[in-house]
Write a structure and sequence with these properties.
Elements: E1 11-15, H1 19-30, E2 34-39, H2 55-58, E3 60-63, E4 66-70, H3 74-81, E5 86-90, H4 96-100, E6 104-107, E7 124-128, E8 133-134, E9 140-142, E10 153-154, E11 157-158, E12 177-179, E13 184-188, E14 195-196, E15 201-205, E16 208-211, E17 216-221, E18 227-228, E19 233-238, H5 251-265, H6 268-280
Parallel strand pairs: 1-2, 1-6, 2-5, 4-5, 6-7, 7-9
Antiparallel strand pairs: 3-4, 8-11, 9-10, 12-19, 13-15, 13-18, 14-17, 15-16, 17-19
């Protein structure tokens, strides 16, 4: 373990720990990068079983073969990273940047509007999806919309506009998303990965029921006990009756991770650090 906060191996910091961000983290982890995740104190992640944000609530989570562990201090984070785990921090302002000095920052918060990033004195900053414009608020943009450009790196311009609709699966599209019927606290009634019949009760919000719109697998639901607002996305039903889908990183997330990896390795300095690390090992 390192004796200071200075990391001697290639380290990347990801803002956001949702399912797409976590797919990026896993792809980079598998390729030899140390990966940290900066999240909110109370993440509103839907696909929690494949999101490192879940470590904020549980302390430790595992996605496929990769472990994410909550770091309370910078020293904790360094120790976790050198255990070959993803270090997850409740750090919405990304204050850890100044201590850990990553080679690159991946903004994967999926805000879908201009995050107002300042590129002055920044390392490589890569933005995922709508709201990012290369040269203005990031250095490179990765397309997150399904289609022929998914995972493509843009060094000029930006990604496609937000469609506000999920991908179509087995004939279902907008109805796959569960939304809060009111402002209030969510109380879950079922488990993630459970197969539900049409009309089954999924959760309550302020005394109002949230029901399954069709038969399918509950692939995602925000954490029990969180305050939600009317119309907010709180869940995800998949009509394919395979509970494993709740536990597997999606092809979309891995494709986006591939785009991030391409953008990182386009920088000779990052390439050389990764190569030197492997040679030393």
């Amino acid at each position: 373990m390192a004796n200071s906060n200075e990391l001697v191996e290639p380290f990347v910091l990801i803002r956001g720990g949702g399912d797409l961000a976590s797919g990026v983290a896993i792809r980079l982890h598998r390729c030899g990068f140390l990966v940290g995740v900066a999240e909110l104190p109370e993440p509103l992640t839907v696909r929690r079983l494949v999101s490192f944000s879940e470590a904020v609530y549980r302390g430790v989570c595992q996605i496929e073969e990769v472990t994410g562990t909550l770091a309370v201090t910078i020293q904790d984070a360094v120790g976790i990273l050198y255990k070959r785990q993803v270090a997850v921090m409740a750090d919405p302002e990304c204050a850890s940047f100044n201590s850990l000095r990553p080679l690159a920052v991946i903004d994967a918060r999926m805000l879908k509007n201009d995050p107002g990033n300042d590129l002055v004195d920044q390392p490589m900053l890569i933005g995922l999806g709508p709201g990012f414009l290369a040269g203005k608020n990031c250095h490179a943009v990765i397309e997150t919309n399904r289609g022929p450009h998914l995972g493509r790196v843009f060094w000029q311009g930006g990604a496609q506009e937000d469609t506000r609709l999920p991908e179509q699966v087995a004939g279902y599209r907008g109805e796959r998303v569960l939304r809060a019927p009111a402002d209030g606290v969510l109380q879950a009634e079922v488990m993630l990965g459970q197969i539900l019949d049409e009309g089954d009760l999924v959760a309550w919000v302020a005394g109002q029921p949230v029901r399954a719109p069709f038969k399918g697998v509950l692939r995602g639901l925000v954490h029990d006990g969180l305050d939600v607002s009317v119309g907010m996305k709180i869940g995800d039903i998949d009509p394919r009756l395979d509970p494993r889908l709740a536990y597997q990183v999606s092809d979309k997330a891995l494709s986006i991770g591939g785009g991030v990896l391409e953008a990182l390795l386009s920088d000779p300095a990052i390439r050389s650090q990764l190569g030197r690390t492997h040679a030393a090992g």
